[in-house]
Structures are given as structure tokens and as C-alpha cells.
Amino acid sequence: MTEIFTKGMARNIYYGGGFFFLLLLLGLTLDTLRELPERDHRENITESVARGKAVWEDNNCIGCHSLMGEGAYFAPELANVYDRYGNGSEETFGQFMQAWMKMQPMPTEGRRKMPQFHLSPEQVDDLSAFLIWTSRINDNDWPPNREG
Ligand code: HEC
């Protein structure tokens, strides 16, 4: 084998490597497109879930909270808040959310505060539906602990 690294060899590495990673990118993109519908269980996106997402966005909940790790880190992660307070029951979680949203801001000294949003009971129910749907997305069990 020759000791000299020629332009031809460099070109082969450039095109060969480029082609290899293009194929890898295409393969992974196809895999994502195939996996996503199962993971986000989009057949369960009801009208209420969609309205809840709009309430979530209009009130900028993500400005303080994270959802599946994305967002701000001022307040608790909410993709698993249903697991924390629902006790396996959508009704229990709905009641928790109604009470929680009504109680804010809490008067406790030295604790981070959540504002009062003055949402209607229907809007809070929609938020609950959205957060329940989010908690059931297959995100490889992120966050790794229930309190996260
Ligand atoms: C200005 C920051 C801020 C915004 C915006 C905000 N929150 Fe919060 N939220 C907090 C803080 C801080 C806590 C923790 C309060 C505590 O534990 O006393 C909290 C806690 C919560 C909890 C209880 C979580 C837990 O595990 O204890 C829920 C549910 C919640 N927020 C929902 C929402 C929703 C829904 C919105 C949007 C409508 C929202 N938050 C917007 C600051 C915020």
C-alpha cells in the first residue's frame, strides 16, 4: 500500500462517507415516521385534549414547567403529573387539577409561586385531558422518576 494520501482517496472518503450518512439519515427518518403514530397514540387525541393543548399554549405553562423534559425548569415536570396525583384514576386527577388551579397562588412563604390563571372548570378539565394524554405518550419512561 502506498504511503501517500492522494486526492482520489480523500474524494472517496468524502463521497463515500457523505453517502453512508445520507443513507443512515434516511433510514432513521423512516424509522421515526413508522414509530411515531404508535408512540403518541394519536387516535386518543379527543376534542378535549386538543382544547387542553390550546389552553396550555395560550397560558404559557411551558414558561415555567417542562413537558417530557422540554421547557423551563422553574416548576415541576408535568408529563408525569397524572402518575403523581391521579392514582390511576382520571376522575381523581380531574379533581386534583380543579383544586390545584383554584388554590394558586399558595401563600406558603419561601416557596416558588404559581400564578392564578382564572380558568373556567371546563378549561381545567381540558387541561387534565391534555396532561393525561401526554402522560401516556411512549417516551421511554421519561422522566426517570415519578417526582421529576
Ligand atoms: C410563573 C410560573 C408558572 C406558570 C406560568 C405555571 N406554573 Fe404550574 N407551577 C409553578 C410552580 C412554582 C409550581 C410548584 C408550586 C408548589 O409546589 O407549591 C407549579 C406546580 C404546578 C402543578 C403541580 C405539580 C406538582 O407536581 O406538584 C400543576 C398541575 C401545574 N403547576 C399546572 C400548571 C398549568 C396547567 C399551567 C398553565 C396554565 C401552569 N402550571 C403554569 C409555576 C408556574
Structure description:
Residues 47-135 form the Cytochrome c domain. The chain crosses the membrane at residues 12-33. Pfam families: Cytochrom_C. Keywords: Heme, Iron, Membrane, Metal-binding, Transmembrane, Transmembrane helix. By secondary structure, the protein is an all-alpha fold. It folds into two domains: 1-39; 44-148, Cytochrome c-like domain (Cytochrome Bc1 Complex, Chain D, domain 2). The protein is built from five helices and two strands, in the order ααββααα. It has helices at residues 7-39, 47-58, 81-85, 90-103, 121-135, and strands spanning 66-67, 70-71. Strands 1-2 form a two-stranded antiparallel ribbon. Strand 1 (66-67) and strand 2 form a beta hairpin. Helix 4 crosses helix 5. The longest helix has 33 residues, at 7-39. It is elongated. The structure holds heme C. Residues 59-61, 63-65, 74-76, 78, 81, 84, 100, 106, 111-115, 117, 127 line the site of heme C.
The gist of it:
The protein is mostly helical. The protein is built from 5 helices and 2 strands.
Series of H and E elements: HHEEHHH
Question: What's the CATH class of the largest domain, please?
Answer: Mainly Alpha
| CATH fold naming of the largest domain | Cytochrome Bc1 Complex, Chain D, domain 2
Oligomer: single chain
**Count of helical stretches:** 5
Indicate how many domains the architecture comprises.
2
> Largest sheet at a glance?
2 strands, antiparallel
Cα-atom Rg, whole angstroms?
Answer: 23 Å
Identify every distinct bound molecule in the structure, by name, code or SMILES: heme C
Q: What is the annotated CATH architecture of the largest domain?
A: Orthogonal Bundle
Q: Name the CATH homologous superfamily of the largest domain.
A: Cytochrome c-like domain
